[in-house]
Design a protein that fits this description.
The protein is an alpha+beta fold. It contains 4 helices and 3 strands, in the order βααββαα. The chain has a 3-stranded antiparallel β-sheet. α1 crosses α2 and α3 packs across α4.
Length: 77
């Protein structure tokens, strides 16, 4: 599944994505190891931040750009 870099995840969704506990993700956020914003007392993280944490941000951005180019070309036909 292709995920946009600006797709947002809750702490629970990020935990599932990273295969960690929600509590561990919240610790990473509190320690600054993960970056997110806190809206209405709930953490929100972007896919890009999760990719950075995993060390795959550049590769995933390249995949996203390639996907967007292919979709644009298909739509032109």
């Amino acid at each position: 599944m292709i995920v946009s870099p600006d797709e947002t995840f809750s702490a629970r969704e990020a935990a599932d994505f990273l295969r960690k506990s929600e509590r561990q993700v919240q610790r990473y956020l509190a320690d600054g190891k993960l970056q997110g914003s806190r809206k209405n007392g709930r953490w929100q993280l972007t896919a890009l931040e999760l990719w950075r944490f995993q060390g795959i941000a550049r590769e995933m951005q390249d995949i996203w750009i390639d996907y967007c180019v292919r979709v644009a070309k298909r739509d032109e036909e």
